[in-house]
Amino acid sequence: RWEGEAEIDYVFKVVVVGDSAVGKTQLLARFTRDEFALDSKSTIGVEFQTRTLTLHRKRVKAQIWDTAGQERYRAVTSAYYRGALGAMVVYDVTRRATFEHVARWVEELRAHADGSTVVALIGNKADMPAARREVAADEAARLAEEQGLFFSEASALTGDNVERAFLTLLEEVFAVVS
Ligand code: GDP
Fold first, then answer.
1. 26 C-alpha vs ligand 1 centroid, how far in Å?
2. Residue 34: pLDDT over 90
3. Ligand 1 binding pocket mutation candidate from 26, 98, 125, 134 (most atoms within 8 A of CB)
């Protein structure tokens, strides 16, 4: 038997979406490898990263998909969304436009992913100085509540809230599928 593989109880596909340069790749690197790569585009072309963890005594392989830059050409394909049990919509707290596009990403998700896909809204780059901030946390929390999404600010750079955000999302997915 193939060591490791046979012990997986669930594979959860999670997709990460949002405008270009909001920090999707770095959030994924932080969660799957606990690193922040300075040459940020090292993962281009890689479809997903995985991390295996235990939830409620089950071995869960989280398969986290990165758009790998496709979003720049508005060419995120339906194959990207197919079978996604969870999704993270990411914006950058220092760029208001990326927050204004959240509704569009949520619509895109709802159109392509399954109706039961669990969606989290993540305001990344929370480490940036207050003077650079263009989106207040309570405004994003309100939007998340209206849309029925879990919300958290996070920083892929410092690692703040990244683990918690992914784990909360995976827990919610677990509750849906188990
Ligand atoms: P993507 O295009 O959404 O995948 O964004 P990247 O992960 O490539 O990040 C875009 C830029 O934002 C890069 O220069 C990163 O170093 C930077 N970045 C990503 N996450 C953070 C963060 O949490 N804080 C700060 N200050 N910069 C970040």
1. 6
2. no
3. 26
